[in-house]
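Why should sequence recovery work at all? Because a backbone constrains its sequence more than one might expect. Tight turns favour small or flexible residues, buried strands favour hydrophobic ones, and helices have their own preferences. The token representation captures these environments compactly. In the example below, the structure is given first.
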């Protein structure tokens, strides 16, 4: 297993390099310039000096290599220094990826916004898994029952209805008509008492519910299909013929084999929930990564967009590796060495 993990990590490095090249090339071709936000009265020679100081007159490959150094070396070193309170190398004058709009390091802004996104997306994703897997297993075991039919109906609605529709509908019903929950998310709220904790839970309720419904819908249908495939296998009939109870057959044999493809979907959905947050955060005014990406695109803030998209790609590579390693834990027949 250790050798396999090392091989996958070594293979991930050139993968990330290629991804960074694609991201940098696409955004380099997009319209946008750091001097576009400057006053129009600024002389042309001053604008050219600014472009020269930022390296925008360099060839494309030179710009990409400089960005690679910042993304793969400087920013990780800064994160390590911040976490462990160290100073590796020339930490005082180390170059950073600077946002064009805020003139601040892009990674620092991302980490400031990250807790807001993790509160909502993390809670919705965990709740989605805890609800979807039991619902999918029971629906498959009780196929065509009332539970299965109701679960199929709810999950089809959850998967078919986009989050911007369910989000607006939730605001109209639970905020405007009933007045149970606030219609927007207060990112400045500090949880330091029981009342503020309840206020935080209330403002999280609707965005978490909307994303949980969407995440649960796809995962429960996939779990149901996977369990149905395994319920008719020979090893299940053999286990029953040996006198094992239905609970033991389902939980020990069927569920363990059925969760192998489900793990893949879960691992691939984790980076995808950040993309889903783009719409949800706009609806509920959550000041997270989704709102940051939309703002950066609107302001043609290329360094911020590059950093965010690369981080999403990095998460996809990492969780693919986690999914592959989890296969060996769920199924002892899988060997990597």
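From this structural description, the recovered sequence reads:
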């Amino acid at each position: 297993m250790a050798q396999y993990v090392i091989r996958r990590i070594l293979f991930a490095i050139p993968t990330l390099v290629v991804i960074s090249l694609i991201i940098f090339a696409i955004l380099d071709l997009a319209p946008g310039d750091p001097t576009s936000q400057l006053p129009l009265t600024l002389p042309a020679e001053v604008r050219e000096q600014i472009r020269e100081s930022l390296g925008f007159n360099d060839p494309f490959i030179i710009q990409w290599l400089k960005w690679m150094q910042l993304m793969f070396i400087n920013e990780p070193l800064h994160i390590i220094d911040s976490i462990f309170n160290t100073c590796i190398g020339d930490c005082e004058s180390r170059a950073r990826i600077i946002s064009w709009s805020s003139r601040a390091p892009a990674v620092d802004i991302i980490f400031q916004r990250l807790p807001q996104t993790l509160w909502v997306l993390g809670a919705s994703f965990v709740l989605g898994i805890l609800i979807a897997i039991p619902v999918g297993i029971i629906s498959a075991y009780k196929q065509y029952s009332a539970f299965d039919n109701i679960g199929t109906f709810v999950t089809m609605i959850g998967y078919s209805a986009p989050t911007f529709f369910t989000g607006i509908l939730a605001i109209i019903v639970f905020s405007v008509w009933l007045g149970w929950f606030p219609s927007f998310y207060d990112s400045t709220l500090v949880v330091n008492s029981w009342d503020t904790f309840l206020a935080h839970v209330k403002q999280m309720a609707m965005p978490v519910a909307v994303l949980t419904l969407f995440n649960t819908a796809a995962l429960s249908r996939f779990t149901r299909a996977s369990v149905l495939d395994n319920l008719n296998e020979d090893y299940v009939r053999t286990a029953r013929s040996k006198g094992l109870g239905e609970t033991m057959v389902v939980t020990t044999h069927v569920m363990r084999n059925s969760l192998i493809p489900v793990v893949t979907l879960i691992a691939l959905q984790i980076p995808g929930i950040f993309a889903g947050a783009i719409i949800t955060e706009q609806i509920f005014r959550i000041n997270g990564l989704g709102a940051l990406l939309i703002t950066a695109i609107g302001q043609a803030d290329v360094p911020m967009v590059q950093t965010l998209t690369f981080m999403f790609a990095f998460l996809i590579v990492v969780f693919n590796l986690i999914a592959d390693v989890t296969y060996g834990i769920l199924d002892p027949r899988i060997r990597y060495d």
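A few observations help interpret the result. The CA atoms of residues 107 and 208 lie 26 Å apart.
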